[in-house]
Amino acid sequence: MNSPSDQRHIHRVLSGEKDAFRYFVRNYQEMGYSVAISIVKNDMDAKDAVQNAFIRAFRSLRSFRQDSQFSTWFYKIVVNESLKQIKRGKSNNETVSFKDDTKDYGPIFNEAMNKLEVEDRNIRIDNALNLMKPKEALVLKLHYLGEQRIEEIEKTTGFTKSNIKVLLFRARKSFSALFVQYKN
């Protein structure tokens, strides 16, 4: 089921209030990008895939069956649009970082150090995720960053539940090893 806020905004959009769709862009753009980048490995292609996914979601909102969550439905569209980007031959496998882009470290030294540590951790996470197998990185992001249950990941990716469990197991192991490797 959708969150009450998602349901309210779906109803508003379907009632003709097109600006209400901004809610979905605000809430799902970052994770959509994260899903897309794990597939296409290229910043521009990932942004294109997410933009196309939002356009497709907006146009198809009337056909959205609300028996699943909006996020599951939307991330499935992102996966499909990302795969279309690859089929078009636009992806060139660049490594991309989605680290915290905050430039204002504040006047206090401790605050600046904390932010630098977060940035360093995000870079290590990026490096580890970019070196992982795409399917493993995808299920890891959907499960932990997208907070999706296995059933939702199944709907998003089309993978079987047992395959998702195996991929998550391998992804955790792989991520852990790669993350530690980038600590040094």
From TrEMBL:
Transmembrane segments: none
Assigned keywords, A-Z: Sigma factor, Transcription, Transcription regulation
GO molecular function, one term: DNA binding
Protein origin, superkingdom: Bacteria
One Pfam family here: Sigma70_r4_2
Keyword Transcription regulation in annotation: yes
Coiled coil spans: none
BP terms from Gene Ontology: DNA-templated transcription initiation
RNA polymerase sigma-70 region domain location: 25-90
Domain called RNA polymerase sigma factor 70 region 4 type: residue spans: 124-173
NCBIfam families registered for this protein in UniProt: sigma70-ECF (TIGR02937)
Family classification: Belongs to the sigma-70 factor family. ECF subfamily.
Protein name: RNA polymerase sigma-70 factor, ECF subfamily
Lineage of the species this protein comes from: Bacteria, Pseudomonadati, Bacteroidota, Flavobacteriia, Flavobacteriales
